[in-house]
Amino acid sequence: MNDQYKKLHQISQPKFSFRFCPVCGNPLRTLRLKQNEPHRLVCSKCDFILYLDPKLAVSSIVEMNGGIVLVKRDIGPMKGSWVTPGGYVDRGEEVKEAAIRETVEECGILTRVKDLLGVYSYTGRLVVVITFISEYISGDLIAGDEVQDVKLCRSSEIPWDDMAFQSTTASLEDYYHLKKRHNIPSKVKEPQSAFDRA
Predict the structure, then answer these.
(1) Which CATH code fits 55-184?
(2) Whole-model pTM?
């Protein structure tokens, strides 16, 4: 486990970066409004409370040709490390649709969501990750938006020491434990050629 990974995932309290009220523009102050709740940002004039809610992300473990799809990140954090396809959910977007969209954007293939694998969150981290098991439908693998490389991996080929996030590692471990417990073979569905799609 490299130092960048440790630094990114060490438990810490989120730092408030907002200084002014979005309603009236006056300074915000940090107050504990209820004994068993965290500190909140409260306007010093109009008493508006700025709630800092978690950020929702999705990821997909895409089953394809007897393996799963991994992408190498081309942006920070953890640039150059491997993840399953995924990203942030847009406001008002259905989480399954977000998972399908992110997979198309990052690796060029259309998928269908089969099952919910798990929800991953960690103390002190702002992102909550919903991970689905998806199956390949059509398209050719490409390194798309914010991706250096894309590849298919069988379980023996997963670069465990070079995974980007704790949630990525945890979800892949859960996936392979699930397959082992239920003795589920990987379904083979070859990507279509350009000739087949014509």
Answers:
(1) 3.90.79.10
(2) 0.79
